[in-house]
Amino acid sequence: MTKYRGVFPYLVSPVDAAGKVKTAVLGRLCDDLIKAGVHGLTPLGSTGEFAYLDREQRATVVAATIEATQRRVPVVAGVASANTADAVAQAVAYQKAGADGILAILEAYFPVKDDGVEAYFRAIADAVDIPVGLYTNPQFQRSDLSLDVIARLAKHPRIVFVKDASTNTGRLLSIINRSGGDIDVFSASSHIPVAVMMIGGAGWLAGPACIIPRQSVALYDLCREKRWDEAMELQRKLWRINEAFARFNLAACIKAGLQIQGYDVGDPLPPQAALTADERKVVENTLRDMGAL
After folding, report:
1. Which residue in 61, 119, 60 sits closest to 88, CA to CA?
2. What's the whole-model pTM score?
3. Contacts of 25 (CB under 8 A, 6+ apart)
4. How many CB atoms neighbour CB 9 within 10 A?
5. Under 8 Å between Cβ of 92 and 79
6. What ranges in 70-140 are assigned the alpha helix state H?
């Protein structure tokens, strides 16, 4: 089964006021990110506002991403639902559309016990023939993936990586130790990627890579070459992006940054609000300091 490595930007979902996906804008963004050296693309991650899109919009975002990449990099599509049958249907549809992998997310209104969590992810992986990644973010999820569940799911032949957004690097090390190499660990933007790479991480899936792709790839390359002092110097500089985003809505920040860079991606989907003029200025100044304008 394919193993993924590197920087996978969480793509925004450009949607106009009428609810139509701006496929041309998304295609241009995908093309530019690939030219900047990213290793893959992830539509319908957190930055892609999956929780605010309907089924047709989600399918359109995935299809437009696949078409834009032209097989130059893998597309790992986000699948999210509170309903197992619906999640399985999404995964099957995205594989049929040409997705190279699935990033599985569990949405939950009522808390779900470990057995139910495990069954949800296992059902998705059983239904497809492409690699599956687990996404865990206890800040936003009612039912998290425990270490025991991750260790058991890591034995599944198609579950090949986990993206953990717990902000707990020690938890990542526990996953690496307990899985015995059966599953790769990807960082989230809430982590310091260099630290995750130092303990054996495979890369990161994150929204900020949409607006600083070249810098993100350069950081990954330094980590792969074990040039840790240089990597930490760059990491400290890039961390200002994460500090800015921690103050505001993530999708609003990424979309504002892309608008400043010339991509007509539109505003975040309601009920989320666009950045104010002052907040937008913070993002613009940060990007300028990063050399991303």
Report:
1. 119
2. 0.95
3. 14, 263, 264, 265
4. 31
5. no
6. 84-97, 114-127
In the structure encoding, which two tokens stand for residue 60, read together?
A: 């359109």
Tell me which residue of 180, 111, 124, 188 sits closest to 152, measured CA to CA: 180
Distance CA 272, CA 66 (A): 27
Tokens 């070459």 belong to residue: 225
- DSSP β-bridge partners for residue 7: 204
Q: Which value, in Å, is the radius of gyration of the alpha carbons in the chain?
A: 18
The owner of tokens 């002052």 is: 278
Query: What are 82-123's pLDDT values in tens digits?
Result: 999 999 999 999 999 999 999 999 998 888 999 999 999 999
> Over the stretch 160-174, which tens digit does the pLDDT of each residue have?
999 988 778 888 889
- Supply 126's token pair: 């059983």
The residues pairing with 163 across neighbouring beta strands, listed in sequence order, are: 135, 186
CB of 37 within 8 A of CB of 69? no
Query: Residue 226 to residues 8, 96, 177, 200: CA-CA distances in angstroms?
Result: 20, 39, 21, 11
Q: Which of 50, 76, 45 is nearest to 189 (CA)?
A: 45
Alpha carbon distance 154, 160 (integer Å): 7
Contact 158, 180 (CB under 8 A): no
Beta strands in 93-180 (DSSP E): 101-106, 132-136, 159-164
User: Contact, 59 vs 93, CB < 8 A?
Assistant: yes
Tokens representing 107 are 């949405």
∠ CA 33-34-37, rounded to 5°:
95
Task: Classify each residue of 55-82 as buried b or exposed e, where b means 16 or more C-beta atoms within 10 Å of its C-beta.
Answer: eebbbbbbbbbbebbeeebbbbbbbbbe
DSSP string, 39-65: S-BBTTSGGGTGGG--HHHHHHHHHHH
Find, among 161, 163, 207, the residue nearest to 48 by Cα.
207
